[in-house]
Design a protein that fits this description.
heterotrimer, A alpha+beta (158), B alpha+beta (273), C alpha+beta (789), A: 158 residues, alpha+beta, 5 helices, B: alpha+beta, four-stranded antiparallel beta sheet, globular
Chain lengths: 158, 273, 789
Amino acid sequence: MTNVSVTVNGQVREADVEPRTLLVYFLREHLGLTGTNVGCDTSTCGSCTVLVDGESVKSCTMLTAQADGREVSTIESMADGDTLHPIQDAFHRNHGLQCGYCTPGMVMAAASYLKENPAPTEEEVREALEGNLCRCTGYQNIVKSILDAAGSMSGART
Amino acid sequence: MIPASFEYARAESVDHAIELLGGADDAKILAGGHSLLPLMKTRLAQPSMLVDITRIGDLSYIREDDDQIAIGALTRHHDVANSELLQQAVPIVADTAEQIGDPQVRHVGTIGGSIAHADPAGDMGTVMLALGASFVVRGAAGASRTVAAGDFFKGLFHADLAANEVLTEIRVPKTTGGWSYLKFHRRAIDWAMVGVAAVQRNGSATVALTNMGETPIRAAGVEEALADGADPATASQRADEGTTPPSDAFGSAEYRKEVSKVLVRRALEEALA
Amino acid sequence: MVATENYVGSPVLRKEDAKLLTGQATYVDNQTMAGMAWMSLVRPPHVHATIDSIDTSAAASMPGVVAVYTAADLEDAFPSSLPMVWPITEDIKIPTHWPLTKDKIRFAGDAVAVVLAETREQAEDAAEAVTVSATDLPVVNDLEEAAKDEVVLHEDLGTNVVVHWSHGGGGDQSVFDSAPVILQERYAQPRLIPNAIETRGCLAYGIPAAGEFTLVTASQIPHIARVGLSIATGIPQSKLRIIAPDVGGGFGSKLNVYAEEALALAIARKTGRPVKWIETRQENYLATIHGRGVLHDCTLAGTDDGDILGMKFVELADMGAYFQLLTPGIPELGAWVYMGPYDTKAYWYEFRGIMTNATPTDAYRGAGRPEATFVIERLVDAYARKIGMDPAEVRRKNFLPPSEEAFGSIMGLSIDSANYEPTFDKALELAEYDQLRKEQQARRDRGDVKQLGIGLSSYIEMCGLAPSEILGALRYVAGGWDAAEVECRPDGKVVVRTGTSPHGQGHETSWSQIVADGLGVTPDDVEVLHGDTSVSRLGMDTYGSRSASVGAEAVARALEKVRDKARTIAAHELEVSEDDLEWADGAFRVSGAPDKARTIPELAASAWHAHSLPKDMEPMLEGTAVWDPPNFTWPGGTHVCVVEVDTETGKTDILKYVAVDDCGNVINPMIVEGQVHGGVAQGVAEALYEEAIYDESGNLTTSSMTQYLVPTAVEIPPITQDRTVTPSTTNSLGVKGIGEAGTIASPPAVVNAVIDAVSHLGVKHIDKPASPERVWRAIQDAKTEGGAA
């Protein structure tokens, strides 16, 4: 067993875990944060994307021990009560989700990316999503949602 | 999918890592983990111990050192890609880092991890070869040696690293002329089917290839033709000399050879423009 | 007065989104129970082998292991093998398909044992420790090889050619010998892996003493699964509840009754513990159904000025190693659209279903119709090229005219309504077709490295599965109806129970729009319940673009019953005759005295307290409808794809994609557009990227998402969309269905474009997926042939 202390969505969570415990299962099965999904097992689909120290990572390809002492943010931390985060709201307004399974990963990937590039072009958004697969939307409205969110988030800042 | 059980140890320093590695059979270094953990999840790799070196704080840096840039082995692809120093002094390294994996992978994966993994489909090894980079390797009892990129890649997933050695630094010469790294792949997220790095040097160019053999390799025939004054179109016809590319679901060896010629010409046209 | 609006036809934002966006979805892996144990399957590394022995002893003694079972241990658990519900011919040979294979492994992924353990990790560890000794047999994966029966998968059947179905002979067959132009082509379409991003998974639990069991399963078909799993496990339908919670995509892959579902129920019954199984992606590639996998020999008879006289298709279809729920019926689903939107004078279609040492095939988005549309649209392009006509002109010349006479399709079913040419014109106009042809010529004249290609695909669909009587005639064992209940609560809210089972399609929103319009409430006042056989008791679930035209129509009909009852109560309360009432501004109003009115919420309260209802009227304002459609629905449309092909590497980039569809009336245009986006993306994937590849020893080499090329946002192009509206005459809503249109239309549009880009170099055909290597080879081969000629 390895002792870990991970700050998850602002709360320090300590636990003894098997070294092989992947971060995504720590979140889902130890902490009950089931918003982060598992899709592919091979670090391809990005459904399991969370933020570690503010940057997107695939939590199915990270040991919990690697997140020890770090800050992890999951989809559960995005909305403020009933008020959706601007990225979530943009996905809603632009029909950026269908079955919803890839959605938490998409939202977290977008949150990380828009911090790096607050005013992306469509092409840049598509490239920024290369690590997130969606089977329902053809990406059309996901790209539209993220461009829309970028606009509303920059509007909120000015 | 869950890895088989293993022991986990966190190295506090390079020497500590070397000590841990020496103390266990079949221990593996965990850097970003993006090559290793997928293999462990499918249980194709079942190491007895992982030595986590990511907390060794002083291995993530990019700094100028005379006519070279020194990059700490644990510097993440993301930081390599966004380094203003690299973008100015050796832009091919920053540009190539941006082409590796996807944003999530680049936030975790490290330049040292990807070079030490010695995957012939990895982009960075090829660029190192074309640049004539060198690697600093630390061993037991404070031993340190520097290996030229041309000597480092020994075989398929096999680098010149003993079980108790750690790659600590990558040293790349500054470039002043043109360059190009062209990656040919099916999807943006895929490994290179074929990659070509070309770096202008004294009016000629060094050229290296990704995924055209068991290691990153120099396109010796192309370089020779260029030295003899051939133009890119002519020189590129020799791109596949001495190559042994794989045949797999992405493409046959024969096809890869033909693509390498096209890419070498295009890379040379860019690098020598 | 209550202000009302027409919600139907408006892009109402989805009610489903909030929970999905915030991580509060109920996907099966998010559910857990006290005492739950984990199930893991043992899938030995053999493809075709006789099992000599299975050693479970090491696994059984591992930490946390509750039990390890082989088929022999579960002999009593399964009174019947897994169900196949479409025995399409009288003499079809049906392989026995047990949840765990008994004596032989027939494909990579065939499970021989199952482990139950306390944790997910322990179950995986123990499954790995089960050792199987097996004697390998020769493997047969190629369709034509398998048809020779040198290696037979199911000895008791004596052959791999288990079904032969033909639906031929329409029109004047002599055209296939006598027409001025006779074109013969062979098209191969590889197997595809559906790749819902959520893998399969289930959680079984119950009360063994009472014989009652519940299965929570990532399924498109809870109602059908209840019937199928009852057959497989012997649990009576009355004691078996199936719940499809939030489901992360299906695309046909969850339109099935699977071994793991039966195993989970059987083991929950045997052990008394809740049993959970979550599929890994690797298992998903091996053990969840594949789609396509067909080989067509095609003949087109025509005149030399572009009149199609006849089309003939002889197909071999890869069934895989067993039948799943619908396996042999999938090619037949395509059988009714092989004439496309064209006025052909003669047709012939037949197929043979072949068993191979590979994952069973079954419905994958489009199911039979993409396969058919691909070969027709390739064939029409090849014909145009052969006679030197523009492929657009050939299509235009042959469209069925918009007349009822023409709609009596030569395939034996009648098209409900259609008008193909305006759709086609709109697509060409949006694509700027004529301009593109000029640019293409300019590039050809210059000899550019990157050449332009324009691909067309005009398609028809047969949706709205299905009229039960026709299904019966086609030997499908179930009906094709669907059902809905509309219940008005005294607080003004409305509960709808639908028999459809959405998993991304937004039925909660769309059905709410219909109900809101009908009852003068808002969509937010309407709660749509689905996916639980104890809640929405009656239904036939979601597949085959049926939900709107059958399921929503059932809602509309239940709604009419509610309105009829409401009108009667309103007349009673307002003391007027029903004929004196009119529906206006969300209420029944007395003609000429509109202030005398009753809204539905008011009437719902009256019906609930029932203090003063009309004589003999039952309390509660509610209505149930079970709707069996009189016909299929027949959408159509034209898609145009514009590509740039690098003639040196063979790599294709899509520059433009135009989709103009006619799916009849539209309930929610935002959702309809989204369905087309996803369908087109899957079709682009089929055309350029995806292919399940088996090696010579029968192992799946594309065994993960790193090798099976599900495209990313970089590869999928922006899509330009428009619609024409030809309402369906099959249902009162006038809707036709849109879930599969994109997947049906797009593969030939893309492949035709790629071939068009290099046709001037002599290339005539490129198989799917048109990978860079395939395109490059086609160019090299054309050069060689051109040089030799």
